[in-house]
Structures are given as structure tokens and as C-alpha cells.
Design goal:
Layout: E1 8-14, E2 18-23, E3 29-33, H1 36-44, E4 50-55, H2 62-70, E5 74-78, H3 80-89, H4 97-111, H5 123-148, H6 156-183, H7 187-194, H8 201-211, H9 219-225, E6 230-231, E7 234-235, E8 238-239, E9 243-244, H10 250-263, H11 270-278, H12 283-304
Parallel strand pairs: 1-4, 4-5
Antiparallel strand pairs: 1-2, 2-3, 6-9, 7-8
Helix pairs in contact: 1-2, 5-6, 7-8, 8-10, 9-12, 10-12, 11-12
Length: about 325
């Protein structure tokens, strides 16, 4: 009977210039340059199957992730917020690159059964996703300019020209996003999503892009990916205030909020929105619930390749 080879576990803290690598087997930490040559040398020197937890840091981790995956190792990406909460939970007081590498290793050892291995995506999809987030940065910059540069008298014309230039750049972003979506063959799915009253072209594109980010077992999983699920904190007789987890991409939540504001005035969704208000929900809470409904319906359409048909969607009357 062949002897089973034990998988080795590594935690890797990523910085722009270097990687701190913690080996769970012997507790040793080594630092290597975050460059192709050093990463390849380390990967080639690994003995046997490896599982590694890597903190997602900007795009500095991508070279290591791609190289490790290509070599046949299992890679788990851990976001910084989750690692921070885990550090507090286990009582770590220090936060250094070396401590974080060890913490990543520990996290993988304890929680590995609940984690999903990283899988490569279509580079065109990744480029579109990055472009969507960069468009959001321009929108934020335009909003800050509009709010802060007011009542400047003789400079108002120059300020307005600056804001207009941002708006033109945003439109160019949107044209490029739609062009790339067509290259990916998403046009039919975007049209399907746009058949839902309230959802415009950019929101539809964002939802389709999010839908292709992973394999979602249910609408609840898709809602959670977008950060529209509710965090419950109850203990004994104490009932905590419900809040959104806000785990996903904030730009998509902003687009969905705008979509809900448009949908609540549409004849299709207005009765549903009014029923939420009648139950005592505030205007904001009702809009969030409506946005969540839009996401669930969109997920059903994309999963079953259907078009929106109000009579077949219960709860809209």
C-alpha cells in the first residue's frame, strides 16, 4: 500500500518588495524578494504537495499565486479584514510581516476545510473587473470635487470644466466596459438583467461580472458575495441591531442602491416597496431590501437563462 504523502502548509505575507514565508512544519520564517526569479526558485525547491495561505495585497500577490498554482499547489487567498479579526480572536498582540505569515499558516490549518482553493479566471474578466473598480474611483473623485469646490466665484467655470472632464472620462470607462463585456460574450446576460425594471446597463454589467466571479450555490450566496446580507448579533435577551456585512465590492452596492431608488418608483416594484414601508421599515432599509430582491431575481434569471416576467415572480404584487 502506497504511503500517503503529507501536505505541507505555508503562510505567506505579501509586501511590494518581499514575501515572508512561514513553514508550519518547523516554524521557520524566510524572506524572499517579490520577483519572478526568487519566487520560481522557492517554488522549485518545494518538496511534495503544498497548501499555502496568502494574504491578498493589492496586486502584489498575483505573481506568487499564479506560479504556485501552475506548479500544482493548492492556494488559498485570505482577505486582510478576515485575518485581522482572526488575529484578535486568537489573542495575537503583535502585527508584523513575520507574525502575519505564521497567523496565515495557523488560519489555514484550523479553517482549511471551510476555505475554497483559488482558481484562475479569464484574464479578460479580471481586466474588466479592475476597470469597473477604477471607474468607481473616478466617480468618487468627481463627487468630492462637486461637494468641496462650491461658491468659488470667478473660479466656478474652471471647477465646472474639471467636473465635466471627469464625467467624460466616466462615459469613456462605461463604453470600454460594455465593449469588453461584448468580447466576453455577456451581451445576452446583460440584456436579460436589464429586463428587470430599475436595473440599468452598468448595474446589469456589474451583476453579470459578479455572477461570473464564482460558482454560487444559491441566491443567498450571491447576495452574501455582494455584501447585502444581514449580520445578526443576538445573545440571550439582547437583540442587536441588524447591519449589512458589506463584504463585497462597494461600487456594486452603490449601483444597486441607485437601481432600487429607480425601481421603487416603477409600477412593477412600487407595491413591494410600499409593503416594506408599511411594515415599519425606514426608507433606507426598504431600499436595501428592494436591492436585495433585485439581486435575487437577477440571479434566478442568469442561472436559468430566463427573461423577467412579473407574474412568475411571487411577491411583486
Amino acid at each position: 500500500m502506497a504511503k500517503q504523502v503529507e501536505e505541507r502548509i505555508y503562510g505567506v505575507d505579501v509586501a511590494k518588495g518581499w514575501l515572508d514565508i512561514y513553514a508550519a512544519k518547523d516554524g521557520q520564517v524566510q524572506r524572499i524578494d517579490n520577483c519572478a526569479a526568487a519566487i520560481s526558485a522557492w517554488i522549485n525547491g518545494l518538496d511534495g504537495p503544498v497548501r499555502m495561505a496568502i494574504e491578498a495585497t493589492n496586486d502584489f500577490h498575483e505573481r506568487l499565486v499564479a506560479r504556485a498554482y501552475a506548479a500544482g499547489h493548492k492556494v488559498y487567498l485570505i482577505d486582510a479584514f478576515r485575518l485581522s479579526r482572526y488575529r484578535e480572536a486568537v489573542g495575537h498582540r503583535a502585527k508584523t510581516d513575520r507574525h502575519d505569515a505564521a497567523l496565515l499558516s495557523r488560519y489555514l490549518q484550523q479553517e482549511g476545510a471551510e476555505l475554497r482553493c483559488w482558481q484562475p479566471r479569464d484574464p479578460r474578466h479580471e481586466a474588466l473587473w479592475r476597470l469597473l473598480k477604477r471607474r468607481a474611483k473616478v466617480v468618487q473623485a468627481k463627487t468630492r470635487l462637486r461637494q468641496s469646490l462650491v461658491d468659488l466665484g470667478p473660479l466656478d467655470a474652471e471647477v465646472q470644466a474639471l467636473i465635466n472632464s471627469h464625467q467624460q472620462l466616466i462615459r469613456r470607462f462605461e463604453c470600454e466596459l460594455l465593449r469588453r463585456a461584448r468580447e466576453l460574450g455577456w451581451q445576452a446576460e446583460i440584456t436579460r438583467s436589464r429586463s428587470i425594471p430599475g436595473i440599468g446597463p452598468l448595474t446589469a454589467l456589474g451583476l453579470v461580472a459578479a455572477f461570473h466571479r464564482g460558482e454560487f450555490s444559491s441566491a443567498d450566496a450571491f447576495v452574501a458575495f455582494l455584501g447585502l446580507d444581514v449580520r445578526v448579533r443576538d445573545s440571550g435577551r439582547m437583540r442587536g441591531r441588524r447591519k449589512l456585512t458589506k463584504k463585497g465590492e462597494p461600487e456594486l452596492r452603490r449601483l444597486l442602491h441607485n437601481a432600487a431608488m429607480a425601481a421603487c418608483r416603477d409600477a412593477c416594484w412600487q407595491p413591494y416597496y410600499q409593503s416594506l414601508r408599511a411594515r415599519g421599515l425606514s426608507g433606507t432599509a426598504a431600499l436595501v431590501a428592494l436591492a436585495r430582491k433585485l439581486v435575487r431575481v437577477c440571479f434566478a434569471l442568469l442561472k436559468h437563462q430566463a427573461s423577467f416576467d412579473p407574474p412568475h415572480h411571487p411577491g411583486l404584487a
